[in-house]
Amino acid sequence: MFGVFIKPSAVSTQRPLGVAPILWDFVVPSLPAPLTFTRGSKQIIRDGAGTLVPLNDNTYGVHHAPNLTPLGYLSEGPATNSVLQSNTLNTAPWSKTNVTVVENSVTGPDGLESASTVAETESNSVHAIAQDLSRESTVPDLVSAYVKFIGGTTTGFCIRSNSGNTRYIDMTNGAWVPGGTFDAYWIESVGNGWYRLTVRETLATANTPITWRWRGAVLSGSPVVASPSYPGVPANRFALWGAAHVRGASYPTSPIITGAALETRAACKMSGSFAPRTPSAIRLKGRAAMGIGATDQHLCALTNFDAGNHIRVYRRASDRHLIVDWVSSSADLGELADDSDFDETVAVSDSGYVHLINVGHDKDGARQWDGTVARVEVR
Fold it and tell me: Does the predicted TM-score (pTM) go above 0.90?
């Protein structure tokens, strides 16, 4: 049977009278209809119990804050962890200096006995684990780990590269220790005494292996001073989980656990269609990414058969402002700080008809939001 295809714009460019606004609510467990979702890999999110859980390929889930508040859909771009054996620290290519490691001895952020205990030997020197990782010229390296204080008098922890950059935290409370020379750094409290420390380093040297060290430090004095070389005590212990090195990343995203090979998280893609309409306003709710790089971060794009970005919502890379633009108009909603919540309603008169939506990226499935989307409403 042959049919006739009629382009929606030939029928109507207005939302039919009496048609209710469309609401996509991403804090509910099920993927809102009629959206489709793909991600060609696992992704780790925090569930409603505060546990980091892996989602299988192409599986949708609701991400939660450490205080268990549901945040919604966590839309992330691709990333690769080049630290091997991220949770098996007695296995090559890890090297150990004046420490002993007991794997699978502590409950990790994933709720399983998957974290390792790192204890000092009595040597009067540094106490560390390390891996050698390659780098590219002027490309940022993002290095991280989840750490938890177990016991003893060594309460400091640091990540250090052999370029000389170091950043320390107090494992007992997650506080930064003064000093440190990395490009940028982040500390996240993730519950049950666990903290995630992330540092970023960008150097001009290429193709030179860099030794990255995760190690303890003695903290003393006021203001606090960190001493990375000291007489060890075997009772001084901390737990480590999820060590990572992500080349080219500008800020932290969800953890990626590796084994004997590199592990890549694929990009999240979400889109869907709806009855054609000309919106009068849109409402947007979510949380921004933990940083921003050189490209804008797109929360959503509404298009039609002409495939143009008729309405797009993005966080501008140059100043972190949340922008809504349509046709020849634009609304600047002001700065949206890293890792901050927002709930905005914007009038978008004369935007033209739309009937397709992309959530968490632009119309081409790129320029990822890298944060959470809680709600999109088209009125």
Answer: yes
